[in-house]
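Incident review: delayed structure delivery

Summary: a single-chain prediction request sat in the queue longer than the usual turnaround. Root cause was a stuck worker, restarted by the on-call engineer. No data loss occurred. The affected request and its eventual output are reproduced below so the record is complete for anyone auditing the incident later.

Affected input:
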Amino acid sequence: MGEATDKLKAAGNKAAGAIKEGIGKATDNERLEAEGKAQKAKGTVQDVSGSVKGAFGDKI
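Output delivered after worker restart:
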């Protein structure tokens, strides 16, 4: 995957995670809230991965 693909997936995971986390908080569903936090973290990792790939010209 290239830089743009990683960053796009990161944005999707961060958004979906934020929604899950918010719904979990609103409904007092700790499991859904935790899933949302984990998905946001996954998005952050993908974003960093995309940045690293961009810095190295997608050669990794």
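Verification: The chain has a mean pLDDT of 90.
Action items: add queue-age alerting; document worker restart procedure.
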